[in-house]
Structure formats: C-alpha cells, structure tokens
Amino acid sequence: MTGRLPHTLRSDARDNRELILDAARAVFAAEGLNAPMREVARRAGVGPATLYRHFPTKEALAAEAFREQMGACLTIAEEGLADPDPWRGFRLVIERICELHAHDRGFTTAFMTAFPNAMDFAAVREETLRTIAELARRAKDAGALRPDFVLDDLILLIMANCGIQAASPAARVAASRRFAALAIQALQASPRHAPLPPAARLAPVPPHTTVRPTRHHPGTLAGKTS
Amino acid sequence: MTGRLPHTLRSDARDNRELILDAARAVFAAEGLNAPMREVARRAGVGPATLYRHFPTKEALAAEAFREQMGACLTIAEEGLADPDPWRGFRLVIERICELHAHDRGFTTAFMTAFPNAMDFAAVREETLRTIAELARRAKDAGALRPDFVLDDLILLIMANCGIQAASPAARVAASRRFAALAIQALQASPRHAPLPPAARLAPVPPHTTVRPTRHHPGTLAGKTS
DNA sequence: ACCTAAACGGACGGGGGCGTCCGGCTAGCG
DNA sequence: CGCTAGCCGGACGCCCCCGTCCGTTTAGGT
C-alpha cells in the first residue's frame, strides 16, 4: 500500500528508484542505518537530489528497503508456528532471526526502533511478535520452553545479537550462530535452572540506540549522531 | 606508571585535569565513546584547547578515564578466581562484568576495542582475560562449566551485553542482569545440552565498527531531544 | 608586590554530512 | 520531428566537529 505509486512514472525515474533501493540495501547491510545518505546515492550512481526526491527521509528509504526482510521475519515466525513441534519451531525462529539480523547491520536497528512514521513497518513487527508469542505459549505448554520466558526476552536476545561485532561479516554470522545456540539452551526448560531476575520493558527503543541525540544548545536545531 | 606526571604541575592545571576526567567519565558513560570532545570540555567548564593539551587524543582521555573501571574489571576477575567454588566465582564474574558494562556505554567499547596505543590498557585487558581463562579452566574441571566453553564466548557475551539498550539506564541495568542470568544458565554444564556451533574469533574490533556519527533531522529517526 | 613562565580559552580554518535549489537533459506524446 | 513536462545532478549554504594557534590571565617563587 505504501508504494502505490502511479505507474505513470517515467521510465528513468522507475529505474533509478530500483537502483537506489538496491544501493540502500547494500549500504545499510554493510554499514548500518547510520550510513550517510550520500553514500547510498553514490552507490546508486545518482545525485543526492534524486535520492531525496524519491525518499524524502532516511526513514522512508529504510522502510522501503527493508520491506523484504521485514516480510522474511514474519515468514520465519509463521513457519515456526506451523511446525508440529513447537519447541523445534521456536528454536528455528531464534536461529533464523539471529542469522537474518547478523547478515545486515541496518535491519536490526530498523526492526528494533520500528520507525513510528512507517506504519506498516511497525504493523508487521507487531504481527511477528504476536506470532512468536503464540509459538512461545505452545512451547511452554509442551514443557520445552522455560515457563518464565517473556516476549521481552526475545527482544533482549535480538538486541544482544545486534551487539555482536566481528572483523568480517562471515565471522559475525558464525558468532551469531553460536550465540543463538547458547540462547536456545538458556531458554530451554530445565529443573536445574534457577529463577531469573525480573524482565525489563525494552521495546520499542528510542533511536539513540544507534544514534546520539543530545546537543543541549538552546535555540539551535538539535544535533544527532549515531 | 603511565601517569608519571611531575607534581611540578601548576595547581589550576591539576584541578582542571581532574575536572576533565570527571566530565569525561560522565559524558562517556552517558553518551558513549563517540561523544564529541567538545562536550567533555563544556561539561568540565574548560576550553577545548585545555582539554587537548591534557589529553592529545580521545584515546588517551578514555584510557585515563576508564583506568579505574579497567582495574575494577581485573579485580572482579581476581575475586572470582579467589572464590573457593570456581563455578560460583565464574558466575559472579559474569554478573558483575555485565553490570559494570551496563552502567556506562563507553566502557564496553573501550574495553572491546582496547586501543592499540594505550598499552597498559590492553595489558590489563589481557591480564583480566587470562585470569578468567584460568577460572574457567577450574570451573570446567569441577564439572560445572560446560567443557566446550571458550574464552571467545565471554567476549561474545560482553559484546552481546553491549547491544542491550533501554529507555533509562536503570532499565538497561535490569535487562543486563536478566541477560547475565540467562547467559550463566547457558554456560552451565548439562547433559541436555547439544553441542555448539564452532566459536568465531572476535576481538579486537576496529573502533568505527561500533558507531558512526550522523546528524539530526526533524521528523525522522531522532526520537527526542532535550 | 612584582615578574615570569605556565596554563587558559576564544577563535580560526578545514572537513564532512545534510537538505535544497536551479539550470540542463530526456523521455515520450502529438 | 518537435515540444514540453518531468526528471536529473552539480552546486550551494548550513551546521557540527575536529585540532591548533595565539593573545591573555594567573600561579607562585623571590
């Protein structure tokens, strides 16, 4: 719905739009959401003005660029829910979501912050979380998932997964895989497990997660950084 | 050793040095290592030149500002090692290190990156890791820590802990506490645990990986400003 | 009280990212 | 084939941050 653009769009404009989206995906994946818009434009081989005309804000660009991954996220959750064994489904969800997030740096923060202006973005996010919540309920009922698991723990793990850095993308994915395995074993129900400290409300998170806002200069426009 | 400054330092210079260090600790804790040097200077109530004269590079400033925490880190490791029960010592180390890192945003990245130029910084880091490695060995021998644990897993967890964000510092600490508890249970030796995927070499990480500056744009990613 | 060396901080030039304007180009219709 | 509306991208002004220079202030010894 968002992109109900009239196909009365001139052909070159159409082409550029795709070029920009491809470039954005590549740049955001490699450098994160805080990458300069300029960089995306350069990579797409267009001028900055063209980029800004197509996507007036970075938020709009990111929302459009990550629409696919957002959908993938939901698909993963649904596939997990479809698994006859809820615990296996749950594990799969953890593993695949971690991998997805390890692949590009930008998507995680996009997912976590869930820009308020990109409505359907947040909607898919909520739908994904709701699906996983249902899956978690079943896994608990099956006695496989620890009963004190809450949805915020999932957010916690995704955030944590996002903190993992490495020299190469490959190393990051590998590390992320190991992390997911550890997380799963921590979430597995077990009589040996001591009770956990209380969960903290986490999401959604103010953007400074990635971006540093404060520049207390009275009067001037606020500055932000990441 | 590092700070063998002649106490033939003028009194105002001495005072300013302390003011700067206090400001740096506060700013780095609140905003992270990427905070502008200017901000530290403002907070300390000195001019930029003064700051640069005392600490020619941000690295030098951070190394000095975090010396205390760095020492605390090592102390934690040593106390863990001193515990007669190695597994309890290990758990304590995890919990306390996570808490320490949750408290200020800057220290984690400082610890992870371990600036190559700040020699003794890296030295303490290595010493800390070595101590924990020994503790881990004992905990494994006691049959409490899973045998496939490697030191990189600790790095992994610290990095992950660093990814945790929340609205308030208090919430972050709470989340971090829960995370630590989960991590400990994942690392606990258990016959139920499946083998883990291979560990990946992680540290140290180039500093720019962590964050990158961006500017604020009204109505877009920036959630709030003062 | 004075004098000097040391320390201070305001100010400067450079660099980079941001968002926008405008003159030139081209797609695509008549 | 020619025209026009729509699109493009170079260039601009803005702001913030960085690191350094230099005229001014001040500590502290005589």
Automatic annotation (TrEMBL), chains A, B:
Domain of life the protein comes from: Bacteria
Residue span(s) of domain HTH tetR-type: 14-73
Keyword Transcription regulation: yes
Record carries keyword Signal: no
Gene3D superfamilies, alphabetized: Tetracycline Repressor, domain 2
Ranges of compositional bias, category Low complexity: 199-212
Keyword vocabulary terms for this entry: DNA-binding, Transcription, Transcription regulation
Pfam families on file: TetR_C_43, TetR_N
Residue ranges of the region described as Disordered: 195-226
DNA-binding span(s): 36-55
PANTHER family cross-referenced by the UniProt entry: HTH-TYPE TRANSCRIPTIONAL REGULATOR BETI, HTH-TYPE TRANSCRIPTIONAL REGULATOR RUTR
Protein name: TetR/AcrR family transcriptional regulator
